[in-house]
Design brief:
Length: about 250
């Protein structure tokens, strides 16, 4: 299906148009998973007009969060040759939280690891010193697996994501940063980006939770494959539906 998706969706759009299409969808859904109320249309308008556009009923914080996500996404795409290391991780987190972190955590620094223990939703994470200390090994071992090419890129992407979210090393932006890095892995292997739909948030969170509760990432890996298949099938179905001959009068 990947080959068909590349042939019928990616190539006919052209590199620039497809990247913009992906940036808008990915940013909308990735921020939406974290609570943003932006629709795809809101996201597209902000992408086109930047902070000159302020959707009715949306906070300035939401607008800045989305603008920061655009900046992180574009930086990542322009630096796909960057080593998969802690510097890459910190840079993406810094860009993702640049104009919003101090509103939420006045003492925190964008792109710097947490100095306090973390909680998110109903999850209390482990002692932050021990978790942060594991980050360099996660980055280097993932880089080594990317180099060796022994794992399917989707499996590697999902496994990295699960471990990263388990470590939860930043005060904010862990989800958005983790999803960007998972797509960095896919893009480096010439695979389409994975856009986890905000409507699938509960299933996604449940799959992440099983890493802590059951000690397995098989549910997250299955979710990644399912989400990727759904994404490609939907795009191909739209292309077929909207390519039908129309009869006018």
């Amino acid at each position: 299906m990947v080959a068909e998706y590349q042939e019928k969706i990616v190539l006919p759009m052209g590199k620039k148009a497809f990247r913009e299409y992906s940036e808008i969808l990915f940013s909308c859904h990735s921020c939406g998973i974290e609570g943003s109320s932006f629709s795809v249309d809101d996201t597209r308008c902000l992408f086109e007009e930047q902070l000159g556009y302020h959707p009715v009923g949306k906070s300035l914080l939401e607008c800045q969060e989305m603008a920061d996500h655009f900046a992180a996404y574009e930086w990542m795409h322009n630096h796909l040759d960057h080593p998969f290391d802690v510097e890459l991780l910190k840079t993406l987190n810094r860009l993702v939280t640049l104009r919003t972190l101090t509103y939420k955590q006045a003492d925190a620094v964008p792109g710097e690891f947490t100095t306090v223990d973390m909680a998110a939703g109903d999850t209390v994470f482990g002692e932050h010193e021990g978790l942060v200390a594991q980050v360099p090994r996660l980055m280097s071992s993932t880089a080594e697996m990317m180099k060796r090419g022994e794992l399917h890129p989707m499996i590697l992407s999902a496994r990295f994501h699960g471990f990263f979210e388990y470590l939860h090393p930043f005060r904010d932006g862990n989800g958005r940063t983790g999803r960007l890095l998972s797509n960095f892995i896919l893009l480096r292997h010439d695979y389409p980006e994975l856009i986890i739909q905000k409507e699938d948030r509960q299933e996604y969170i449940a799959a992440l939770r099983t890493i802590r509760t059951e000690g397995t990432d098989e549910h997250l890996i299955a979710f990644f494959f399912k989400a990727a298949t759904k994404q490609m099938e939907n795009a191909l179905a739209q292309k077929k539906q909207n390519s039908r001959t129309m009869f006018f009068f």
